[in-house]
Write a structure and sequence with these properties.
The complex is a heterodimer of chains A (458) and B (328). Chain A has 458 residues and is an alpha+beta fold. Chain A is built from 18 helices and 12 strands. In chain A, the strands form 4 sheets. In chain A, strands 7, 8, 9, 10 and 12 form a 5-stranded mixed sheet that branches. A 3-stranded antiparallel sheet of chain A has the order 3-11-6. In chain A, strands 1-2 form a two-stranded parallel ribbon. The radius of gyration of chain A is 24 Å and the shape is globular. With 328 residues, chain B is mainly α. Chain B is built from 15 helices and 2 strands. The longest helix of chain B is centred in the middle third of the chain and has 33 residues. Classes of the chains: A alpha+beta (458), B mainly alpha (328). Chains A and B meet through helix 1, helix 3, helix 4 and helix 17 of A and helix 3, strand 2, helix 14 and helix 15 of B.
Chain lengths: 458, 328
C-alpha cells in the first residue's frame, strides 16, 4: 500500500517535470542571431564630439587595483575629452563575466563593450554565434592595422565564418596595457650565487645549477591548483620553439602540428628541471599564489608569472627584476603576450560608433601613459617610459617596449581549443609526478587540437 | 543543472526539518501521519490548501521544474551555449561508460561516500552512544566545537584544509615534531594521498551534523527502555543495538540522506583546493559538470551529468527512506 502510494507520488512529481521538458522542447540556440559577420557597408563616424548625447555601457573584469584604477582613469579621461559621452561601467570578477557573456550579448540591451577573452573558449564562439561586431570598418578608419603590431593584431582576428582564428576580420581590439609571461628574479640571491641577469639560455641554466649547488631553491612554482604550470612551460616553449610555428599552431591553420612548435622540447626541459631538483621542494602540493608569495618572501631565485601579478608590499619590489627567458638560438626573446583585455562591441549595440571611439582611446598613447602611472605594463606604445625609482617596473616597461617594437609576441597556447588549458595541466601533473612520459603530454595536446579542428569543420 | 541538484538538497533539508524538530521535545507528527489521520470529509479543505500553496508552487515550477525540464532537454544535444545545437541522442549519457575521466570521477564518488557519509554516521553514532546515557561534563561545548564546520561556508573550510595540508602546514609540522619527518609531503599534490586527504576534510565537515542529530535523538529515547534492557542484563553493546540504534532510525535516515547527497554532489572543497588534480586524481562528476558547463562550453554534456546525478540522488534518497521505514 505504502509503495503504491509512493509510486503515485513519484509519478506526480515527474509529470510536471516531463511537461516542462516538452514545453522547453524546442532546439536550443536556434532563436539567436543568424550570424552575419561581414563588416557593415558605408562610412563610419569617428568624431565622438559630433555623436550627440550618448551613454555607453561597458562590461569589464577590472575589479582589483591597479586594473580598476587604470580603467577608471581611462574612462575619466575619455569623458573629459568628449563630455557628450557618458560611460557606465559594470565590473565583475573574471569567471562571472565569462559565464554571463553569451546571455548578456543575446539580451535585448547588451552592454556596448564587452571583454570577450581571446581564443576559442570565448571570442571564437561569440564570433561563430554572430554576437560581436566585425570591426574592419573601424580598423580602417582609425588605422589600427598600421598602428598595432601584427602579432597583437592577429590575436583579435577571426574569419567572418568563425572557423579560423588569427586571420580575417577584427572582432575585438587590444587596450594599451600588456599581460605577458616573464621571469622574475631575486637580485640579492642572484648576487649571492655570483651570477648576472642571464643573457642566454645557457646562462640561465648555469644560474639554476649554481643556485641548486648553493642550497637556494632555483625556481619557486606551485602546481597544486593547476594554475602554475603553464607559466614556466610556455616560457620554455617560447625559448625553444619558433615564433611563427607557435602562432600558426594556435591559430589552427591546420598546417602546423604541436610537435613542430617547441612544445615537446619545453615539456622535456620542464621535466628535467623537476628531475634535477630545480623546482622548489613540494611544488606539487603548493598553490600557485602561495608559491608567488614565497618568492616575494625571498625563498627562491627565479619565478615565472604574468606581469604585475606578484603580491609585493610597497617598496618591496626594489629587490627584484624581470626578463623574458632568452632563446636557445640567441634570437630576440619571444614572449607569450596579449593585451590585458580584448574589448569587443556587441552586435546589438546601438552606439557602435561611440564604442569604437572608446576602443581607439583605450589603445591610445594617453591610455598607455595612464597605465605606466599606475605601474602596470603598457602595450602598443614602445616610447612610453617608466618613471624612475622602481627598477622592477623599469624592466617590465622595457620588455613591453621590446615586444611591441619587435613584434615578438605569441598568443597563449591554451587559446588553441576550449579544453587545451585543462588538458595540458592534467597531463603535465601526471608527467612531473612520474606517472607518464613527456610524450604523453604532447600526445594529449595533439589529440585535443585535432579533435577541435574536426569539430570546427562541422 | 545546478538548480536540479540544489532542489534535491532543499528537499533533503525539508525532510530534515520535521525530524530535528521532533528530536527537540514532544514528538511531532510527521506530515505522513497527519495525512493518514485526515478524514475524507476534509477533502474540500485540502483543495483550499492547494490554493494557498499555489503561489509557492508556481514559483517552484518556474525556478526548479522548468529549468530542470530544460536541462533534461539540453542533455540530448551538443551545444556550446551560443551557436545552434546539434542533436546528440544519448551520446552525452554514454559518456559515463566511455569517457575515462567521467568513469574515474564516478569511482571517486564511491570513495567519497565512505568518507562523507559512512564514516561521519558511524562516528556520530558512536559519540551519541557514548554520551547518551550520562551527562558528560562539557558535552555542550564538545558538541558545539564538533558542530562548528556546519556553520562555516565551504570556501572557508577549503582554505583551512588547504593550509593544514600545505607542505609547511600544521599537519607536516606535527609529523616532524613526532620524528615522522619521512612521512611529510604536499598532501594535496600527491597522487596517492590527495583523495583521502579531501575525504578526511569531508568527514570532519559532516561528523558534527551527524553527532548533533544522533545526540538529540538519543535524548528522546525513553529511559524506561534502557532500564528494561538493564533489568534483562544487557551490557552497553547490547543496550546500543536493542535500544539506541532502533530509537535513532529516523535520525539515521536523515543523516544518511544528507551525507549521501553531499558525497554524490561534492564540488566545493575539490574545486577550491585541487580543481580535480593532481592529474585527475580527485576529480568528481560535479567538477566535470562545472568544467563542461562553464570552462569548456559543452552544455549538453554538462546537463547529462546533472541529470544522472539528480536521478542517482533521487534513487538514493528513496532507498534510504524505504530502508528506514522498514516494517512501519
Amino acid at each position: 500500500m505504502v509503495s503504491h502510494r509512493r509510486t503515485r507520488r513519484i509519478a506526480g512529481a515527474l509529470t510536471p517535470l516531463a511537461a516542462a521538458g516538452l514545453l522547453a522542447g524546442c532546439m536550443p540556440g536556434t532563436n539567436g542571431n543568424s550570424a552575419d559577420n561581414s563588416a557593415k557597408s558605408g562610412a563610419v563616424a569617428t568624431d565622438p564630439a559630433a555623436m550627440g548625447k550618448v551613454t555607453l555601457h561597458i562590461l569589464d573584469y577590472f575589479t582589483g587595483d591597479p586594473d580598476n584604477a587604470w580603467m577608471k582613469d581611462v574612462v575619466k579621461a575619455f569623458e573629459k575629452k568628449y563630455p557628450n559621452i557618458t560611460i557606465e561601467r559594470n565590473s565583475l570578477p573574471w569567471d562571472q563575466v565569462m559565464a554571463a557573456l553569451p546571455l548578456k550579448l543575446k539580451s535585448a540591451n547588451p552592454p556596448d563593450i564587452v571583454p570577450a577573452n581571446n581564443g576559442w573558449q570565448s571570442l571564437g564562439t561569440l564570433v561563430r554565434g554572430g554576437l560581436v561586431l566585425n570591426l574592419d570598418n573601424y580598423a580602417k578608419a582609425y588605422g589600427w592595422e598600421r598602428s598595432f603590431p601584427r602579432s597583437i593584431l592577429s590575436e583579435h582576428e577571426f574569419s567572418p565564418d568563425g572557423k579560423q582564428m588569427g586571420t580575417g576580420s577584427m572582432f575585438g581590439a587590444p587596450v594599451a596595457r600588456a599581460s605577458l609571461i616573464e621571469v622574475y628574479y631575486n637580485r640579492a640571491l642572484l648576487k649571492k650565487i655570483g651570477a648576472k641577469v642571464p643573457r642566454s639560455y645557457a646562462e640561465f641554466q648555469a644560474a639554476l645549477a649554481k643556485a641548486k649547488a648553493d642550497g637556494i631553491a632555483p625556481i619557486t612554482v606551485g602546481t597544486s591548483d593547476q594554475v602554475g604550470i603553464t607559466m614556466p612551460l610556455f616560457s620554455l616553449m617560447d625559448a625553444l620553439g619558433a615564433q611563427s610555428k607557435i602562432s600558426d599552431f594556435v591559430y589552427s591553420q591546420g598546417k602546423v602540428k604541436i610537435s613542430q612548435t617547441g612544445f615537446p622540447q619545453a615539456v622535456s626541459a620542464f621535466k628535467q628541471w623537476a628531475d634535477k631538483g630545480y623546482l622548489v621542494k613540494d611544488y606539487a602540493g603548493t598553490a600557485a599564489d602561495d608559491a608567488a608569495q614565497s618568492f616575494v618572501n625571498g625563498k627562491g631565485l627565479f619565478h615565472f608569472n604574468y606581469s604585475g601579478s606578484l603580491p609585493f608590499k610597497p617598496g618591496q619590489s626594489k629587490g627584484f627584476g624581470s626578463f623574458v627567458l632568452p632563446r636557445t638560438d640567441g634570437g630576440k626573446p619571444v614572449a607569450t603576450a596579449s593585451s590585458a583585455t580584448n574589448f569587443s562591441i556587441a552586435s546589438k549595440s546601438k552606439h557602435s560608433d561611440a564604442a569604437a571611439a572608446f576602443l581607439d582611446f583605450a589603445a591610445s598613447e594617453q591610455a598607455a601613459k595612464l597605465a605606466v602611472r599606475h605601474e602596470t605594463m603598457p602595450l602598443l606604445h614602445p616610447d612610453v617610459k617608466a618613471p624612475a625609482g622602481n627598477p622592477l617596473f623599469s624592466d617590465d616597461v622595457a620588455i613591453a617596449g621590446q615586444i611591441s617594437t619587435e613584434g615578438t609576441s605569441v598568443p597563449y597556447l591554451d587559446w588553441t581549443t576550449p579544453t587545451m588549458l585543462d588538458t595540458i595541466n592534467r597531463a603535465m601533473q601526471n608527467t612531473l609526478a612520474g606517472k607518464s612520459t613527456p610524450k604523453a603530454v604532447v600526445d594529449a595536446a595533439d589529440k585535443d587540437a585535432t579533435a577541435f579542428v574536426k569539430s570546427l569543420a562541422r | 543543472m545546478a538548480t536540479l541538484n540544489e532542489s534535491r538538497a532543499s528537499e533533503a533539508a525539508a525532510v530534515a526539518a520535521p525530524a530535528t524538530a521532533s528530536a527537540g521535545g514532544e514528538a511531532v507528527h510527521t506530515p505522513r501521519r497527519t495525512n493518514r489521520a485526515r478524514s475524507s470529509s476534509g477533502r474540500r479543505r485540502r483543495w483550499l490548501g492547494l490554493v494557498y500553496l499555489a503561489p509557492a508552487l508556481l514559483i517552484y515550477a518556474c525556478v526548479v521544474l522548468l529549468p530542470a525540464g530544460q536541462g533534461v532537454n539540453l542533455s540530448f544535444y551538443h551545444w556550446d551555449g551560443i551557436t545552434a545545437a546539434t542533436w546528440a541522442g544519448v551520446e552525452n549519457y554514454t559518456d559515463f561508460f566511455t569517457d575515462p575521466t567521467l568513469r574515474q570521477a564516478v569511482g571517486h564518488t564511491l570513495f567519497f561516500i565512505v568518507f562523507f557519509s559512512f564514516l561521519p554516521v558511524v562516528l556520530g553514532m558512536t559519540s551519541a552512544a557514548l554520551t547518551a546515557r550520562k551527562d558528560t561534563r562539557g558535552a555542550g561545548v564538545y558538541r558545539w566545537i564538533i558542530f562548528l564546520p556546519q556553520v562555516l561556508t565551504p570556501a572557508v573550510v577549503a582554505v583551512v584544509w588547504k593550509q593544514i595540508y600545505a607542505p609547511d602546514g600544521p599537519l607536516n609540522s606535527v609529523l616532524s615534531a613526532f620524528g615522522l619527518g619521512g612521512l611529510t609531503r604536499g598532501w594535496l599534490g600527491d597522487f596517492t594521498w590527495a583523495l583521502p586527504a579531501l575525504g578526511l576534510a569531508g568527514t570532519w565537515g559532516a561528523f558534527g551534523l551527524c553527532m548533533v542529530l544522533f545526540a538529540a535523538g538519543a535524548q528522546n529515547i525513553p529511559n524506561e527502555l534502557y532500564d528494561a534492557a538493564r533489568m534483562d542484563g544487557a551490557g552497553p553493546l547490547r543496550e546500543f543495538f536493542t535500544v539506541t540504534l532502533p530509537g535513532l532510525r529516523g535520525q539515521l535516515a536523515v543523516a544518511l540522506t544528507l551525507t549521501l547527497l553531499g558525497a554524490i554532489r561534492v564540488f566545493d572543497i575539490v574545486w577550491l583546493t585541487t580543481k580535480g588534480g593532481p592529474g585527475t586524481s580527485t576529480i568528481t562528476p560535479s567538477v566535470v559538470l562545472y568544467k563542461r558547463a562553464f570552462s569548456n562550453p559543452d552544455v549538453g554534456a554538462a546537463c547529462a551529468i546533472g541529470v544522472v546525478l539528480a536521478v542517482v540522488a533521487l534513487i538514493v534518497s528513496l532507498a534510504v527512506v524505504k530502508l528506514s521505514e522498514g516494517d512501519d
